[in-house]
Amino acid sequence: MNYDHIINPVVVDIPPSGIRRFFDIAADMKDCISLGVGEPDFVTPWNIREAGINSLKNGVTCYTSNSGLTELRELCCRYYKERFGTDYSTGQCIMTVGASEGIDLAMRMLITPGDEVLVPEPSYVSYMPCVRLAGGVAVPIRATSDNGFKITAEEIKRALTPRTKAFILPFPNNPTGGIMNREELSEMSKALIGTDVVVVSDEIYAELTYGGTHCAFASIPDMYDRTITINGFSKAFAMTGWRLGYVLAPEPMLKQMLKIHQFTILCASTTSQMAAIEALKHGFETNFADVLSMRREYNRRRNFVVRQFNDMGLDCFEPLGAFYAFPSIKKTGMNSETFCTRLLRERKVAVVPGTAFGDSGEGFVRCAYATSMDNLIEACKRIKEFVNSL
Amino acid sequence: MERSLAMEILDILAQDARTPAAIIAQMLNTNEETVKAEIKRLEDEKILLRYSTIINEEKTESESTIHALIEVKVTPQYRQGYDAIAEQISRYPEVRACYLMSGSYDFMVLVDGPNLRNVSQFVTEKLSVLNGVVSTGTHFVLRKYKDNHVVMPLSRDDYRQVVTP
């Protein structure tokens, strides 16, 4: 067999995730502290786990409807209404296998071969491959640390062409921790007026916004009809392994996405959906106290690491979202890749090179502070020693 | 909703009482002196009473300690209600905690002792003969599975992979 002629060149051309290599080195290393983990260090709250277990005990082991349990979709819509002031009806919601599936659904629903999709950089590793696998062309918009890695109307206007189909809006951002508030989003949205560009707003870190409330892009005036909102349970409820997300969108787009979902996935995990009902129900009953205490805990760690990086001379802008700090390592004279490799080998601290999230991540490293204070204290001590030894 | 500095500090110390003031300051985006002054105020005002430990006694070498929960029914005293008798009970060093309860009895008294006999003696010779005590019911602790929010033995592992997207 000559596989070269068999395998789709689009797939072959997609480089493997830049994170993978560090994982391989770090996984075998003893006493390694990892700031490379992009998921909460909290375990899913017990009441949510119990709801999942009980659903299994009660024999709820069948498929759900393609779009997901009606009760859960109602709760998701209520959640968006009450938390972020955006109106969606149950018929505008699909439960997906993580927010990641939502990205893929949106891309496959929108893209015809050669269509362009604007993808801010640095950003989550999946966007670019999803665009390309759907036959599209990813057009990067390079964000800079000067303005906190935000995207401006000017930058969008410069990137727009007649072939621009969509724009992925990744805030709060992985890896930078940058956010965009209501005013900034309103200002940016002006570049889209008069176009048919669809905005795919990935709001998976919405609950992890510090010192303010997340602004849902669909709530910006005149943007609702062009917005596909993507969210999930991984970050807000520490449910990464449950693989459950949801897509909210105007019905004409949602109906088409549902077909793709129906024929490829059928439905999201029933156990996870049952657990998610408890997550939201309990959330409404307690005014999301668990989410609040989790955010409060992250916020302290965030303050700590940002202060530490700045004190050791690695400039770090204040990340107002997610659980990442994105300090600049330019002063060390090394590139991101070398810095991370040497830090890992010499001081056993794993951080992820900014370049794993696009070329414009060069000169930065991503440090996830979703780990214990003890780990953060020790990791910062080691990074400081490393920087001082250069 | 912003919380007071005091509440934030108490929250951090409740999780780890050994957290240094310098670290707390960085976690709360303030300076060390402010944190130290606030902790001193909390101590002075008897809000922060003690920095204690949670020990898994089963794993220690020392002779095990016996714990008992004792339900106590009393006759409230004229003009003093429950306070006078509660104070009397609380003075005994064997008593770790004493709570006034709603329900079928009045006080829940937590007693520690080196052995069964010692705790029984305390109940029969000291507690039940106090003026105003009507009856007692003693429950010995057989095993601690969870104490102060800590599940014993502490077995939480981090199942996450080392690096994830």
Q: Which SSEs are present, and which pair or pack?
A:
The complex is a heterodimer of chains A (390) and B (165).
Chain A: H1 3-6, H2 9-13, H3 19-27, E1 33-34, H4 46-57, H5 70-84, E2 93-96, H6 98-110, E3 116-121, H7 127-133, E4 137-142, H8 153-159, E5 164-169, H9 182-189, E6 198-202, E7 227-232, E8 245-248, H10 251-264, H11 270-285, H12 289-311, E9 324-325, H13 336-347, E10 349-350, E11 352-353, E12 365-368, H14 373-388
Parallel strand pairs in A: 1-10, 3-4, 3-5, 5-6, 6-7
Antiparallel strand pairs in A: 2-8, 7-8, 9-12, 11-12
Chain B: H1 5-15, H2 21-27, H3 32-44, E1 66-74, H4 83-91, E2 95-100, E3 107-113, H5 116-127, E4 133-140, E5 146-147, E6 150-151
Antiparallel strand pairs in B: 1-3, 1-4, 2-3, 5-6
Helix pairs in contact in B: 2-3
Provide a descriptive summary of the structure in words:
The complex is a heterodimer of chains A (390) and B (165). Chain A is built from 14 helices and twelve strands. With 390 residues, chain A is an alpha/beta fold. In chain A, strands 2-8-7-6-5-3-4 form a seven-stranded mixed beta sheet, with helices on both faces. Chain A has a three-stranded antiparallel beta sheet with strand order 9-12-11. A two-stranded parallel ribbon of chain A has the order 1-10. In chain A, α9 (182-189) links the parallel β5 and β6. The model of chain A has no long low-confidence stretch (mean pLDDT 96). Chain B is of the alpha+beta class. Chain B has five helices and six strands; from the N terminus they run αααβαββαβββ. In chain B, the strands form two sheets. Chain B has a four-stranded antiparallel beta sheet. In chain B, α2 (21-27) packs across α3. Chain B is extended, with a radius of gyration of 21 Å. The model of chain B has no long low-confidence stretch (mean pLDDT 91).
